[in-house]
Design goal:
The chain is α+β, with helices and mostly antiparallel strands and 90 residues long. The protein is 59% helix and 13% strand. It has a 3-stranded antiparallel sheet. Strand 2 and strand 3 form a beta hairpin.
Length: 90
């Protein structure tokens, strides 16, 4: 995805889910795939709050997760699903 699409996706998340969701997404745009502990290190926010944000974004299919080779769950931002908010009329 281009830089413009990344910035647009971050703005969409901020408007619909708040600043914490946007900062989590910033972490996931800088590093394409992160474990929960790495996200917690980068965000400097309570782990409980990060878990809530992740669960909301996963439920809405805006963040994907998968098991890596070392059996850790890694999270990835699903930019194409975030950008679909533009096509949804309110």
């Amino acid at each position: 995805m281009s830089i413009g699409e990344n910035l647009l996706a971050l703005q969409i998340l901020k408007e619909n889910y708040g600043e914490l969701a946007q900062s989590l997404a910033k972490c996931l745009t800088k590093y394409p795939s992160l474990s929960f502990m790495k996200i917690a290190e980068h965000m400097d926010v309570e782990k409980k709050l990060i878990a809530k944000i992740l669960s909301i974004l996963i439920t809405n299919r805006l963040v994907d997760y998968e098991l890596n080779s070392r059996q850790f769950v890694e999270y990835k931002l699903n930019l194409s699903n975030i950008l679909r908010f533009i096509h949804i009329s309110k």
